[in-house]
Amino acid sequence: MSSRRPRGPRRFRKPKVCQFCTGELEITDYKDAKMLKRFISETGKILPRRRTGVCAKHQRRLATTIKRARILAIIPFTEKLVRK
């Protein structure tokens, strides 16, 4: 018996491309809450690069922009958790 476990067919994923580099989106300012909420989880955390597909340069700029919007109360720091 081999210690390897059987593998199914491998699925290849399409590589994620930075939406800011391609020109689909722009980090213009901190006032665009609708755009910034795409990069924040439901608990209020900034989503990582591997999840959003943003390049390192734009991830740093995006994080700074989100933090500015939080300080100016445009977007919340956290979402309220309702316990039942």
Automatic annotation (TrEMBL):
Domain of life: Bacteria
GO cellular component: cytosolic small ribosomal subunit
A biological process from GO: translation
A molecular function GO annotation: structural constituent of ribosome
Keyword Transferase: no
Pfam families: Ribosomal_S18 (PF01084)
Entry keyword set: Ribonucleoprotein, Ribosomal protein, RNA-binding, rRNA-binding
InterPro entries in UniProt: Ribosomal_bS18, Ribosomal_bS18_sf
The family this protein is said to belong to: Belongs to the bacterial ribosomal protein bS18 family.
PANTHER family assigned: 30S RIBOSOMAL PROTEIN S18, SMALL RIBOSOMAL SUBUNIT PROTEIN BS18M
Stated role: Binds as a heterodimer with protein bS6 to the central domain of the 16S rRNA, where it helps stabilize the platform of the 30S subunit.
HAMAP family to which the protein is assigned, alphabetical: Ribosomal_bS18
SUBUNIT field: Part of the 30S ribosomal subunit. Forms a tight heterodimer with protein bS6.
Protein name: Small ribosomal subunit protein bS18
